[in-house]
Amino acid sequence: MYSQHVLTPGKEIRIGDISPDGKEFYADRKKAEKEFKDVRDELISLQNKFYADGRHKLLVVLQAMDAGGKDSTIRKVFKGVNPQGVAVASFKAPSKNELAHDFLWRIHQKVPPAGMIGVFNRSHYEDVLVVRVDQLVPEAVWRPRYQMINDFERLLTSTGTTILKFFLHISKDEQRQRFQDRLDDPEKHWKFDSADLEKRKKWETYQDAFEEMLNECTTEHAPWFVIPANQKWYRNLAITKAIVDTIKQIGPEYPPEESGLEQLVVE
Ligand code: AMP
Ligand code: MG
């Protein structure tokens, strides 16, 4: 199901050809919601084993336009997992100190150590997205970053990290509705940032930057998924399933137990 959303290295996509509409991939919302709960229960028990095993590392990268659903994906997909084994890192505009280093410096510090699932809410990809669109550095600086990112991710996968990268794909109209919801609901005002409206004006330029990022940084070791994300229920199901199947492939095991436990009685 979600496997149809993974990109193939060397096979270029056009983002405009990919539907953001989850309904095209899954007709029955009620069934999807039920399936999602079951798959999330599976994630909870697999993550328990993953943490206990303590040998593997999983990195989940989330990128999207504003209001694309990164925060709510994290909230929904990881609801109920042992918080001790999952670390979320949110990357905002870099500090002066971060800018004084290479762009991967702050990222590398947040990659998951053994036993952990790391979730990136935005990531090193901002350095070829907002940085490119807002011309924060010249092209001669951002363009070589695709290769640097591929090399960096190769370093991670070669040293035992599995990487899952999800682009949450929404339509321009869906973004409009979500911004409007934020304005209409006082409980959501804190999420509204008028700077987001300026970014919305550059929608096409952003889509071009996402498209090139997806094509340039889909590798054998770390391909991108383009997740249709207009429907949250489909997005949650597709992402959770991809994570669950990936952990199953990794195959975490409980560590070997001490011998003679059967005879022990606690007095
Ligand atoms: P939010 O995710 O809504 O909290 O917003 C975080 C902001 O930080 C977004 O506007 C991002 O574009 C911005 N941001 C994240 N990484 C970078 C970066 N490397 N350079 C410039 N801006 C960034
Ligand atoms: Mg924001």
Describe this structure in words.
By secondary structure, the chain is an alpha/beta fold. It has a single domain, classed as Rossmann fold, CATH 3.40.50. Helices cover 44% and strands 12% of the residues. It has eleven helices and five strands. Strands 2-3-1-4-5 form a five-stranded parallel sheet, with helices on both faces. α1 (29-53) runs parallel beside α11. The mean pLDDT is 97. Magnesium ion binds next to loops.
Judging by the overall fold, what is the CATH architecture? Answer: 3-Layer(aba) Sandwich
CATH topology: Rossmann fold
Number of strands: 5
Largest sheet: 5 strands, parallel
Shape: globular
Q: From N to C, what is the helix and strand string?
A: HEHEHHEHHHEHHHEH
Topology:
Blueprint: H1 29-53, E1 57-64, H2 70-77, E2 86-90, H3 96-99, H4 105-108, E3 117-121, H5 130-133, H6 139-142, H7 145-158, E4 161-169, H8 172-184, H9 194-201, H10 203-216, E5 224-228, H11 232-250
Parallel strand pairs: 1-3, 1-4, 2-3, 4-5
Helix pairs in contact: 1-11
Adenosine monophosphate is lined by residues 91-94, 122, 126-127, 130-131.
